[in-house]
Amino acid sequence: MKDFINRRDFLKVSALVSSSLCTGLTLSGIDFYYNKTIEEKGTYKFRIGDFECVCLSDGGYNYNLEDMFSNVPTDRIKEVLLKHGMPTDYIWTPYTYLFINTGENRVLIDMGAGQLYDTTGKLLSNMKLAEIAPDSIDTVLITHAHPDHIGGALDENDKPVYTNAQYFIWKEEWDFWFSESAFEKAPEEFIRIARKNLGPLKDRVNLVDRESEILPGINMIPAPGHTPGHAVVSLSSGDEQLFYIGDTVLHPLHLEHPDWSPVYDIIPEKAAISKCKIFDLVADLDAWVIGQHFPPFPSLGHVTKQDVGWKWHPITEI
Question: Which of 70, 97, 69, 94 is nearest to 81 (CA)?
Fold first, then answer.
């Protein structure tokens, strides 16, 4: 397993990546790299200041073009994918989650998809590979309650996997999934999974209703739109920052084409506002970013502003 990468090494790798992008490394190369190594490299260690962090893979999924970019004609989507050298019949995305050891707390952001698809369900095995015991987790931060973020909350006996954890979720998110109005805005299966997986956690759930420091150096920031109570998690230690963006956007092409949106955004107009807020912020701060669905694994990199939108700069050398 690779040693923890520090900020100086990250900047060196980022420079190499930016250079290689300029000299012909296409997104298809990144996509191929991800698919080739996903089962072999399901963990990735790095540091944010004094925080030890591990990106953890739960697998991934092939999305339909029309679902990932629901407001764009298919011919236009294929044109852009072809320009980037990417496959034109599907969009592959990783499912990446984050473990943080602050020295005082052991934190997990989101809980994986579980057995949602036959290409998911690898989170616990990769935690074991990284020597992270589920019962050592004392804090779970939930960005939102879509199935690929809370599907791994329970074991095969419908008992909580993270037996010693306190859970934090935005109050509006919790209230939405347990409301009758959810049936007007979300698929019934999503609601069933949310209630099934969150219900058993109720006694240990903490509802967040304002931007808050959950633990020293760890904040939850509202970023509604994808879901009513979607949140971003920020880490700060020393002079370094990282933003785990959840599903603020689902794919780097949503940054390059900021008017493109997925079918999964429940409130698209709010999602557009959150996108501008979060990505202007991370670009201005030159902060690390984990895009939960951003290829390639470990979904770690940084974002820069462009004349239109933003650009994703991943680490491609692990």
Answer: 69
C-alpha closest to that of 49 among 90, 10, 88 = 10
Give the angle subtended at the CA of 54 by the CAs of 221 and 202, to the nearest 5°.
Answer: 50
Burial 242-279 (b: 16+ CB within 10 A, else e): bbbbbbbbbbbbbbbbbebbbebbbbbebbeebbeebb
Rounded distance, CA 225 to CA 215, Å? 25
pLDDT of 101-128, one tens digit each? 999 999 999 999 999 999 999 999 999 9
Give the gyration radius of the chain's Cα atoms. Answer: 18
Say whether 211 sits in a helix, a strand or coil. coil
Q: How many CB atoms lie within 10 A of CB 65?
A: 17
The domain defined by 7-314 folds into Metallo-beta-lactamase; Chain A (3.60.15)
User: What's the pTM?
Assistant: 0.89
CA distance 174 to 44: 31
Beta strands in 73-118 (DSSP E): 91-101, 106-109
**Average pLDDT, stretch 156-180?**
98
Sign of CA dihedral 291, 297, 300, 302: negative
C-alpha triplet 114, 215, 213: angle, nearest 5°: 105
Instruction: Give tens-digit pLDDT for 186-227.
Output: 999 999 999 999 999 999 999 999 999 999 999 999 999 999
Token output for 113: 């998809």
The DSSP code for 136 is G
Closest CA to 173 of 200, 142, 201, 149: 142
